[in-house]
Structures
1.
Amino acid sequence: MQGKQRMVRRWAPVVAGLCLLAACTKGKNSASDEAPPPAPAPTVPSGPVAPLTGLPVGPAQAGRPVLVVKIDNAPKARPQAGLVEADVVVEEEVEGGVTRFAALFHSRDGANVGPVRSARSTDILFASALNRPLFAYSGANLAFQNLIARSPVVDVGVDSFPQDYRRERDRPAPYNLLSSTAGLFSHVPPGAGPPPPLFVFGQAGEAGNAAGATPSAGVDVEFRDVILTAVQYRWDATSGTWKRNQDGRPHLDTGGVQVAPRNVVVQLVNYRNTAFRDQSGAPVPEAELVGEGEAWVFTAGKVVRGRWKKPTPEAVTEYLDASGAPVRMTPGPTWIELARPGKAAVAP
């Protein structure tokens, strides 16, 4: 949004000048008088660019690490705070068909983020590639807690810094724990650096122009077990975003803003049983994120059917088109859906 506002301010004088020129030449019929002005060359950001969005960013944000916040998506946890401010959001299946988000904050901040919930082993598999990110969560079983302690993340969970979390009285527990990015970023350790780029972003007209790209209205994803979490993204050409619906309704944050990223990645993965169970007795799954598989990238009103590859937990996942080239996405926020094979369908 900030990038769009800067573009409007940048082009306002040009637009005004063109309007004045049109008024002054009204009534002239020669071909030279009616010739349109040359199209401007695409602009390239001259300052720092956010590695997770490809958009211009301030120096302070450019150099800081990424903050990963675990946010619940159970029905009682909605609406959430902070999702529309995140650069990247990963949706993973947890127990019983419920999903949970890992929201990555780097170029923007959220005054409220949450509700913050517990960690899963899936989180470590993608967080390990983020150059020692800050990791905010609320509890974990002993095995997962030991995994976090051994992993390349900076623990800023509620047990480590309880002063940076609060309970909201108008939400039922345990769906009422919130924090802020300002408080959590105050614990950046010396020498911490920014995350690596997770995607390849294209210049004007490049996004979506990949081998095998076809126009698409969006995608439907379901996470089904004891309950069903039904997710739908639909392309909105006016805003250039994929508007998200959930369980048949627009997915709104606490401010009433609909989730609408520039890119959506459906990463088809298998889930394995970790042999743990949650408090209800449901098995705790783990997404298999190391290896390769099918991936669909939705950008600029098109879908690119390709593959994902991640050889090690520390490696950044690659998203490749049918020719094996990296898919070029639209600069802006991206949502990643860790969907089971057969549980997602492309809308024509």
2.
Amino acid sequence: MDKRIFILVGIFLALLACNAGASTSTPTPDLFATLSASTPKPANPLDTQPAQTATSFSLATPVMLTEVVSTPSSKDLPTGRIVFTCQLFRVQASNQICIINADGTGYRRLTTDDNKQHYYPSLSPDGKSVVYAAFREANFYEIYEMDLATGSVVQLTNKLGNLNAPEISPDGNHIIFKTWSPNTDKNVLWKMDRDGKNADKISRVVGWDPTWSPDGKYVLFASDMEGAIKLFRMGINGKDLHRVSDLPSMRGRSDWSPDGQFIVTYSGEAWHREVYIMNVDGSNARVVSPTGGNSQGPSFSPDGRWITFTSYYDHPEDDHGCEIYIVRVDGTDLRRLTNNDYCDYQPRWGP
């Protein structure tokens, strides 16, 4: 009996020794494994989607940047909402307008006409409404304003031409936008009262994708008036025109930081575009988007600490692969907000 007890005790001690060396570590997932974590999607795109959560991840090779501002603390979380164009039906002719909270929750569709193209949304300075352009008939897009609390929509223009990129002034009294007509075949910047009255061109210079300076005195826009597309600044009265940046292969939609000290824009050849941040005079331009995503269409957060943009990190070179991302202004803490099987793009951040 004593011999059997001795043998059992010996076996028990041997098992303890084996388990003591067992590892409990878990491998860190790589970039694409992290990106593959999907968020819930409804069976019917007309329904409001369940709450989504922002996905955070780190790139294998960090982007080295000159510091723009001091890096915010980890407690400085993104706030506000982002409105954007959502290609629910995977065709541009049926583009819709959607909105999401900056933390990735509250995703919902705003527009309801499945058979009309809606695009170029932006939030009002008080965050209570969104303006956007929508197709009316051949060569005519109109500008609309939607009250976010009630969903009611007001048409602000009437057959001025092909209009897009509307944006409400910081004081809430005016709207700037781009118009094109087949008679002139030119893109020109216009301004009108908030209710759509007194619409007229700002100047005769060619331009598109306008955005207000924080003080409402200037407009930043893209133009090919000198040949290649460049970024320009002009007084809202049509005077004081200056070229801001000579970045090669510039595209369009840009934004001012809320303090007026910085500009974000995007540049690059097709499928190789990056988001740039620069001083308001165009100096010290540097890439802020982690490379390799074909990033574009940036917009500052209301506190100036984050940037939202469209990118294709999930599905490179897939026409339906663009999603909405945010990143801190120093290029760190990249987060994906949307994860759909269609393109989400043209984001604009607001309160």
